Model the fold of this input.
Amino acid sequence: MPELPEVEVVRRGLERHVVGATIDGVRIDDVRSIRRHLAGTADFADQLTGQTVMSAQRRGKYLWLPLDSDDALLIHLGMSGQVLIQSPDAPALRHERITFDLSNALQVRFVDQRIFGGMSVSASGAELPAEVAHIARDLFDPLFDADEFAHKLKNRKTGLKRALLDQSLISGIGNIYADEALWRAKLHFARATQTMRRPDIDRFLAAAQEVMSEALCQGGTSFDALYVNVNGQSGYFERSLEAYGRHDEPCRRCGTLIRRDVFMNRSSFWCPRCQPRPRNPQGW
DNA sequence: GCTTGCGCCTGAATGC
DNA sequence: TGCATTCAGGCGCAAG
Done:
């Protein structure tokens, strides 16, 4: 499922193939994919048709394309969203929800099996769209403030992983990279945030940046000139995960069997030896 | 104001 | 074989 590295791959693809092009037409095959555009399908198409894409922006897992009207096309991939850039004569794909015809003879196709993602037109294209205002900066953002993050984290009264998945505290980290970064930093997912010390926090941030940078390096090389794809199935997921999905397999650091526990109604994978359970786990 | 839990979705995997 | 159930999880929203 798309997390920060995958979304950044899509942003780069859009920057390369869509910025500067004009939207000549919009086809909506499933209105559920624009359910957050409250003004409806006709308005969605009207607001976009004839507009030129000025740039491709991202914060956390949100993408937006500022337009020359000062609106922006806001995109979230959700669990299964893909943005494909293809020739108009490419065959139709399963779960195609929205198609854009561009002036440069390419199409943008939004494909989303589970429809957790979606698109909308936001009225604030020049700056941060209103829908993204509450999203914290992510670890790829040069203005990410580790001091501020540490302060906010220690003031939370919850479990560590729950805080990490809260996009208003730090963005871009989903279930998979949370488990991977916690494993690398040797931290337990239910560690009380109030007990986190600065070295723990810095170790986590370094681990998260490292694991996501590695994923970006691999994902960033996996698309060709006319194809931008995010499907959570990149080579990175198959080769490089140390914790996620590896329950009952030996930890690659100490050999102890990786455990799977349900936390926040999600699976959490962790090594009982490298990431010992705290005395007062929270939110578990 | 902060924290927590639910519902949205589809299809692959699993159980009977 | 075929039907029913479970599971995956990012996000907004409402309740506590």
